[in-house]
Every structure is written in C-alpha cells, then in structure tokens.
C-alpha cells in the first residue's frame, strides 16, 4: 500500500513538472514544426508583411496530454517598402511569437490567434536623415543592430523568461500571462504610457467599431440600429504599471433605417434626417485573453464619464470634437458630411513635444531602438504667429478648393510658404469676360446677378433619369396598353426614351417623351423585337398619374402621339401662313383635367355614389349605372372628381347586388357625381354628392325614332357580331362539328364566356404570357376540369409510408438548362378527353430517368397505368405517389408500342415479361426552387403538380398570373419540368426567369406543347408537389 502511495505522489510530481513550459534548444526544434510556424507567420502576420529571413531565438515546450504546446520566438526581416511604418526609413525588424499544438499522432496545428509581433526601429526615425550624414556607418549599424537585438532577446528570454525595462521587471509567476518582448527606450524625450495616434484605416480596428455599435444598440432606447460612417481618429497607449492596452476611438456614428432586429447592418442606409454623432469611446484590452476587449467609457451613452475622465485631458482635441453632432446626407459625397467639422479641424496642427535636439544627440539616439514612436501632441492654433506661419497657406489652399465648386477660370500663381512674406500675397487674376461683370468700382454701381436657371420652382416638374426604375416600368406598361388598343398587326416598339419629368401634384405626375415605331414582330411575340424597316418613328408623350391611396398600384396612363403627316396640309407652295390654333392639350393651371372613365378611382367613386343613391332612394328597385360618360379631376384644397353617368332603375329589388339589368321601360337620366377627397380631413371617406335632373312635369315621353336603349342595344349587337365572327374562325381552324343547332348555340355561349376569361387573364398578367382562342375555347370550365386535367390529391392514402426526401446536390447552376437537348425527353403526347395527366407526368419522369441511367430513350405506356393502377382511378384522376407504388407492384412499364394509349378506362392486360423498365422506389423533392433546379440538372426531369387555371387559353410567353387567378393550394394537373431559362428585356432592364414544362395536350397547344411559367415565387403551386421515380 505504501509503495502505491509513493508511485502516486511521483506521478503528481511529474505532472507538476510537465505543467510548466520548459526551454528547448533551438537547434533541436524539428524541421516540420519550424516550417509550419514560418508559413503561418507569413500568412497571418498582424502587420500583414512577408518575411525575407528570420532566426528562431527561443523555443519553449509545454506538455498538456494528449498535446504538446510549443511557443516559438523569431527575429524577422520583413519585406516592406512603401508600407514601412516610418516613411522613408529602412525596413524595421520585427519580433514575433507563435504557438503550435501537436497531438500524439504527430498532427500539427498552428494557433494563428496567438501570433504577436512588434517593430524595432530608431527612436527618431521620423526625422529625415540623409544618406550623406549616415555615410558608410549604415551597413555596419544594421549588422550590429541585428546582432544586438538577437543576442539581447535570446539572452533575456532563455535565461530569465522576462524582459527588463527602466521602470519595471516582468515576473513569470502568473502562468496565464504570455511572455512579451520589449527594448529599452534610450531617447530622453520618450514618454512611457503616453498615447500615440494609429492609422484609422487599419483593418484591425473593425472589431472595435463593431463592438461600439453593438453596445450603443443595446443601451439606446431607439428602435433603429446605429451605423458607422467613419473612424475619425484613433490613439493607443499602455499606461505605466498597468497590464492593459488602452485605445481611444473617435467615431462618426449615425442611425440607419434598419430596425434592431435586422440581420445585416451594412446594407442599411442612413437616416438623412437624423444628425450623426461624434462619439469618443475608450477601450481596454488584454490581448492574451480571448475576450479581453471591453468598453470603459462612451460619451454618447454616458456623457458624465467624459467630463470626469482624467485620461481625456491628454487629448483635448478628441474631447472637443466628440461634443459635436453632424448633419449627414447619404446621398452627398462623404466629405460633405464633415463640413461641420472643418472650422475645428483646420485649427489643429501637429508639433513635437521635444525641443530641438543637437546633431550629436540625433546621431547617438539613432543607433538605439524603441518600441513606440515619439508621442505627438495636438496644439490649438490660437496664437497669431501660428496663423501667420502655417494657417495662412492652409487657408489659401482651402479657398482654392472652395473656388473649384464654381465654374470660374482662375489663374493661380504657385504659392509656397517660403515665397510669402507676412501680410503679403499675390492677387489671383480672374478673367472678367467669363463673369460678364462690368467694372463698377469707379461708378459705385452694384451689378445684380441674374437668378440662376437652375432654381427649381416649388411644384414645377423636375427632370429625372430615363433609366429610373419607375420610368422604365411606366414605359413598359404604356407599351402594353398601346399594343392592346392598337389595330396594327405588329407589336409597337420603343426606339428611345428621350426624357422624363416628375411633378408632385395630388400624387405624382410622370411625363415621359419616347420615340415609338412599329416592330417586325407579330402581335403576341415579345422577344428580340426590332424596328420594322420603313416604320415611321413618332415622338409620343406618356403621362402617368399615380395616386397610390386611390389607384391601388394601377396608375392612370395616357399615351399621346402626333397625327399622321398626311393629315397636315402643305402650305409652303401657297405662301400662306397658316395660323395654328391653340392646342386643346394646353391645360390651364388649376383647371379640371379629363381622365379615363376606366380609372380605378372613378370606378370606385361611381360604386360608392350608386350605394348612396340606393340608400336615399324610395324606389323599390336598385339603381343601375348604364354608362360612365366622362370624368374630370381638379386639384383644389384636395381632389375634386366630377363624373357624368347615365343612370336608370334595375330589375332587381332592393338588397341583391348581382346580375343587375336595366328594367324595361326605365327612364335614363344623365347625373353628375361630385367627389371631394381630402384625406387629411375625411379619413378616406370623401364627400360625395349626386345631382340628377328633376322628373319632367309632363308624363308624356318624347317618341324616339331609335327606340329605348338604342346605344346599349347597338353595343350588344356589335359585340355579338364580333364574338360570332371569332367563333366561326375557331370552328374552321379546329374542324369543329356540332350535331344540332342547339349544341352549336350552347358552344357559342360558352365561347363568349371564355372570351371574358381571356380578357381577364390578359389584364392581370404580370409576365409576358399570351392568352387567346385555342382548342379549348368552346369547352366550359367544368368540362375542362373533368376531361383534360386529372390530378387528385384526395387519393393520397394516410396509411402509406411517405416517400423519402431527395438529397439535393450542391452544384453551381448554369444560366439555362434543357433536358430536351440531351435526349432525355420524348415527343409531346396527347391525353385526349381523359383525366390521365398524372400518368403522363409519371411516365415522362420514368422515361427521362431511364434514358439518363441507361443512355437509351424509350416511350413508355400511360394506358398501362390507366388500366392496371388500382390505387388511382384511371381517366377519373390519379396521383404520382400512387403511380410509383403501382409500377413497383406491377413489375415495371411496357412500351407505348406494346400497350398503346386509348384515352379511356379498359381492362388491364399487362404482361410482366414485356416490361422494359422497373422502378425501385421514389423520392419527394424540396419546395425550394433553387434546389429543385439543382436536382433537375444533376438527375433529370421532375414530375410536378400545378394549378392549371391559367393554362387553358395559354398561347405563349412567360406566364405569371396573380395568385387570385391561380391558387397555389389547389393543384389539379400533373406535368413534367424538363428545364429552365431566363428571358431578358434589355430595354426595360428586366429579366423573367422561367421553368420549361412539358404538357400532355398535344403539340398544337402552347409553345409546341410546352408551357413556360415564371420561376422563383411558387407560381400556381408548381413547387409544392415535386417528385421522381428511382429507376432500377
């Protein structure tokens, strides 16, 4: 038992010995450790230098099982020229320490955070010493200095592991304190502990500013984050008899527009209406500790600390500057933000604290090294001598920079402080003809300068860039409106946006001048359209009145182009001056302006007026507006709309608000609706009055030769004739035949309803999608869903084990990708009048997976799934998840040629020995569209579900309907994604990313059977049901 106790005590003693670092001879340091340390110093040096050569002057080893910790100290010769800390001086040497860690297996890790370096350079290296004064002593001095530094450091570290200074000796009792290296300060003017300035541009100061911003965010009561504008000044000091390093940073800080819960502060713009603050913040750092940096004072959060600080008395300049606030405008150059500091900053100059030193003392002190540069104090130029010697030349230079802001040619004589006598200067010669100012000295005449044409009257139009995003958007909308209203067979084209202005009225009024012509593209084509040869280019004016509180993001847009030239008479040959009449386009200031009767604000006011009339009327039936005749708007103390409507009585009793029609024999009256909108007073409920003519005293009506409701009847007849003509063209194009006249009339009625749906889709299209009459134009909505779709999410069985989630490859995506070009997609097929879209989506996916894996493209049988998949319902609908399981259960898929498609439910006659492709399992794919694209590129086409509301009348382009037209939660159609791309519109600086989707309605539908739909926002729910089979 006693023996074991002795063994245990010996083990503890050994562990105690090994817990302290021990010196090891530098010539016994393994080469691998030496090389790793050397490489790390070159890559992670805090001075950002590379080193030409260096000597290992000390090595220590500390055993901390299972590691050995090494500490190496190097004397290094850095490669530095223009980056030397003392401009013009020889490149100073550096002393650096680094820690390394080695495990039991010999693996070496450099602890880069442990690297510490310091300079060794002459005390008066900042003074310019010529090479003639140094003579041949420089070479010998450098060699002697290297030798002295190496020997001194090696001797002190190896023998004592401490560094002796004039005023203290570092003891080694504290194991947590890292050893440091310093040199004796031999300069008599050296000030221990005094602060000295650092370069504010140093990257190492960023953690200080970030910690200051974080502290101010935590302590301030405001809602917005603080943002650093600039580091104005930095000082560093090591107080005597202290174990900390003290930094003082003078920071210009403003408030950003981001709330405190914002993730990225650097992307937050400054609030231009909140003054910036100059904050003097004091930090204390213990570099050997991981979290050794802390804030001790901040005058912006605790102003009382500033006045009571003793250390701040050493820096009156920083303290005085920190009491200022600066108005900062992010839109102006950064230098403009400091104009408020200019008067103060110009009153500072640098002066050394030490008196003149004789040449002998300079020569003596230049051979010694110090660890810090001589302290530089900041003095206020309040004496008259200082202003004469330095201030005047600085002010002359400042005045020259001030004149640069004016377009005044100035001939400046070269002025130097030496060439100037006290109280004398050379007058600048200014060319008077450039000013166009007469000599008025002798005549005692004051020439008043004309007002600059740059002065902008309040409320007048202001020019804006033609590249402004709003201008581009309005031009695009105007172009679509011209295309929609024009009878031309080709699309219009914008040749150039000439100019644009914006005016603040009751809203914002944009006026944009463009050059417009006709493109060579037929109606409906939007890509790569160019100006048609011989097309007339007209200067057109686009006017856009935006009132977001009324128009709900749909501003009123008008386009005015000049009449054709043939309508202008040639008056040159007749020598007659044709006086041009005043243009009706000239609008008197404050007069009523006509606006479109289709304006959203007009429509809203008419609806409110109708409800008011209904509420106040004693009639048993609801009133009805037959026609909005005209509308004007006038800017008064608010907005005054005057709307003329034709109003009558409907056939609906009071209460119901749907399917109104004008009552037979109802008298129609022209009524005026007046709406005065003053949002600051009426809280969004404008004053509305409706004035209608009183009823005639005589009950006898004038007999009209045209009959009652003539205009309405004529409009209805014209619309019926137009729709019937379109229907005849449709019948001929798609070879439609109807058994009876009743069936034909039914299809014509459905056709007319579908024309209304087409107009709705066109009006609410966000992309470039084109909608029109196609093979489904005589199919009702109910028939379309029953016979041409077929995705049935309700067939999902809760008891089935969910498909596993697909692994997403981390790859860089190309700009576009298409599996059709790589031979993995069969030609477009046609499901006919059978709800089997789910089967075509699944077979298309399996065809692609098999082609990619086996390099052979096969066309597989959809009819097999319609007949034999007992988890789904054939032509009555199905689900891809069920189809994958059915294929695995059946034993595979036969070829299309062996089991052809019949577009109806039949008895299953699958032969397992004829199956060509087997499926092992299936996977669900993420709803993230970027990751869907990554999986597509790496693995092949993807089966998806989609809402097909916008697909029935799709003709081409990138479809992007609003969600209320295409609910992403109501999936009803199965299709196949085969690729993706992006459509570019350089004129409007716009890009439309899209998916390429293979459909199953034949190649006469859409773009040769394919559908391009917007990519990136889950349009129509296309990202919510993505899956793929795993082919054996």
TrEMBL record:
Membrane-spanning ranges: none
A GO BP entry: proteolysis
| Stretches assigned to the Peptidase C1A papain C-terminal domain | 813-1030
Q: Which UniProt keywords apply?
A: Disulfide bond, Glycoprotein, Hydrolase, Protease, Signal, Thiol protease, Zymogen
Pfam families named among the record's database cross-references: Cystatin (PF00031), Inhibitor_I29 (PF08246), Peptidase_C1 (PF00112)
Bias regions of kind Basic and acidic residues — which residues? 359-368
Q: Which residues form a coiled coil?
A: none
List the biased-composition ranges (Polar residues).
Answer: 128-142
- Region Disordered: list its residue ranges: 128-153, 300-322, 349-368
Q: Which protein family is named in the record?
A: Belongs to the cystatin family.
- Protein's recorded name: Putative cysteine proteinase CG12163
């Amino acid at each position: 038992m006693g023996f074991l106790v002795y063994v245990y005590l010996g083990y503890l003693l050994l562990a105690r010995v090994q817990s302290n670092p021990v010196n090891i001879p530098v010539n016994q340091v393994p080469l691998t450790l030496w090389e790793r340390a050397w490489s790390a110093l070159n890559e992670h040096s805090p001075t950002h230098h590379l080193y030409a050569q260096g000597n290992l002057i000390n090595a220590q080893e500390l055993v901390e099982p299972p590691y050995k910790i090494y500490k190496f100290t190097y004397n290094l010769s850095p490669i530095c020229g223009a980056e030397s800390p003392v401009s013009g001086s020889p490149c100073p040497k550096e002393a650096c320490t680094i820690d390394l860690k080695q495990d039991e297996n010999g693996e070496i890790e450099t602890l880069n955070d442990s690297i510490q370096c310091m300079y060794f350079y002459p005390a008066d290296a900042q003074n310019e010493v010529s090479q003639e004064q140094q003579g041949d002593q420089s070479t010998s001095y450098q060699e002697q200095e290297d030798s002295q530094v190496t020997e001194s450091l090696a001797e002190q570290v190896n023998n004592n592991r401490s560094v002796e200074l004039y005023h203290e000796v570092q003891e080694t009792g504290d194991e947590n304190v890292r050893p440091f290296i310093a040199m004796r300060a031999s300069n008599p003017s050296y000030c221990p502990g005094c602060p000295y300035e650092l370069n504010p541009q140093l990257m190492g100061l960023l953690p200080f500013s970030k910690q200051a911003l974080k502290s101010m965010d935590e302590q301030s009561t405001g809602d917005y984050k603080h943002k650093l504008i600039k580091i104005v000044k930095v000082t560093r000091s090591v107080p005597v008899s202290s174990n900390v390093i003290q930094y003082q940073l003078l920071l210009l800080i403003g408030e950003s527009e981001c709330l405190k819960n914002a993730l990225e502060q650097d992307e937050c713009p400054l609030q231009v209406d909140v003054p910036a603050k100059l904050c003097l913040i004091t930090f204390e750092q213990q570099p050997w500790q991981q979290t050794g940096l802390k804030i001790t004072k901040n005058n912006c959060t605790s102003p009382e600390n500033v006045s009571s600080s003793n250390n701040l008395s050493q820096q009156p300049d920083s303290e005085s500057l920190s009491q200022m606030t600066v108005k900062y405008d992010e839109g102006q150059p950064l230098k403009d933000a400091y104009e408020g500091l200019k008067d103060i900053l110009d009153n500072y100059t640098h002066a050394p604290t030490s008196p003149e030193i004789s040449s002998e003392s300079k020569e003596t002190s230049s051979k010694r090294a110090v660890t810090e540069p001589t302290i530089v104090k900041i003095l206020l130029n309040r004496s008259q001598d200082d202003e004469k010697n330095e201030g005047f030349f600085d002010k002359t230079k400042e005045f020259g920079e001030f004149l640069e802001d004016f377009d005044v040619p100035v001939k400046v004589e070269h002025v130097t402080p030496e060439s100037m006598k006290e109280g004398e200067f050379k007058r600048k010669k200014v060319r008077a003809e450039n000013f166009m100012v007469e000599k008025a000295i002798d005549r005692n005449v004051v020439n008043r300068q004309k007002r600059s044409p740059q002065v902008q009257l309040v409320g007048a139009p202001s020019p804006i860039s033609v590249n402004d995003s709003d201008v581009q958007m309005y031009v695009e909308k105007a172009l679509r409106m011209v295309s929609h209203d024009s009878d031309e067979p080709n699309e219009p084209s914008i040749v150039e946006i000439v100019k644009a202005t914006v005016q603040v009225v009751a809203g914002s009024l944009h006026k944009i001048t463009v050059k417009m012509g006709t493109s060579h593209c037929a109606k409906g084509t939007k890509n790569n359209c160019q100006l048609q040869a011989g097309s007339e280019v007209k200067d057109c004016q686009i006017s856009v009145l935006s009132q977001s509180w009324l128009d709900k993001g749909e501003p009123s847009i008008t386009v005015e182009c000049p009449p054709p030239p043939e309508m202008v008479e040639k008056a040159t040959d007749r020598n007659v001056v044709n006086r041009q009449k005043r243009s009706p386009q000239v609008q008197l200031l404050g007069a009523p302006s006509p606006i479109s009767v289709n304006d959203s604000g007009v429509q809203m006011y008419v609806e409110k007026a109708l409800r008011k009339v209904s509420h106040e009327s004693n009639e048993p039936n609801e009133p009805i507006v037959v026609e909005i005749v005209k509308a004007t708007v006038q800017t008064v103390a608010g907005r005054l709309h005057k709307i003329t409507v034709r109003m009558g009585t409907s056939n609906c009793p009071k209460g119901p608000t749907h399917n109104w029609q004008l009552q037979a024999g109802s008298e129609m009256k022209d009524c005026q609706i007046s709406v005065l909108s003053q949002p600051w007073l009426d809280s969004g409920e404008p004053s509305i009055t409706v004035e209608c003519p009183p009823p005639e005293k005589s009950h006898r009506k004038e007999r009209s030769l045209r009959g009652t409701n003539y205009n309405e009847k004529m409009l209805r007849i014209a619309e019926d004739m137009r729709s019937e003509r379109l229907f005849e063209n449709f019948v001929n194009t798609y070879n439609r035949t109807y058994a009876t006249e009743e069936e034909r009339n039914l299809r014509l009625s459905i056709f007319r309803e579908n024309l209304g749906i087409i107009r709705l889709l066109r009006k609410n299209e966000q992309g470039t999608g084109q909608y029109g009459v196609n093979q489904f134009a005589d199919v009702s909505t109910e028939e379309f869903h029953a016979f041409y779709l077929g995705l049935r999410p309700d067939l999902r069985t809760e008891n089935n084990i969910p498909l596993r989630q697909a692994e997403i490859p981390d790859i860089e995506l190309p700009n576009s990708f298409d599996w059709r070009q790589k031979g993995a997609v069969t030609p477009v097929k046609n499901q006919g009048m059978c709800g089997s879209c789910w089967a075509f989506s699944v077979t298309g996916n399996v065809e692609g997976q098999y082609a990619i894996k086996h390099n052979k493209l096969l066309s597989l049988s959809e009819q097999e799934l319609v007949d034999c998949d007992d988890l789904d319902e054939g032509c009555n609908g199905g689900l891809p998840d069920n189809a994958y399981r059915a294929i695995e259960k059946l034993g595979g898929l036969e070829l299309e040629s062996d089991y052809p498609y019949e577009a109806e439910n039949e008895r299953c006659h699958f032969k397992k020995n004829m199956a060509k492709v087997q499926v092992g399992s299936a996977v669900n794919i993420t709803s993230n569209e970027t990751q869907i694209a990554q999986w597509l590129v790496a693995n092949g086409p993807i089966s998806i579900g989609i809402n097909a509301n916008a697909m029935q009348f799709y003709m081409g382009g990138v479809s992007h309907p609003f969600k209320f037209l295409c609910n992403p939660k109501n999936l009803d159609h199965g299709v196949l994604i085969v690729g993706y791309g992006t459509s570019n519109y350089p004129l409007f600086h716009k890009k439309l990313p899209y998916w390429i989707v293979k459909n199953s309605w034949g190649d006469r539908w859409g773009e040769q059977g394919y559908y391009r739909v917007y990519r990136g926002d889950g349009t129509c729910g296309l990202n919510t049901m993505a899956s793929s089979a795993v082919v054996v």
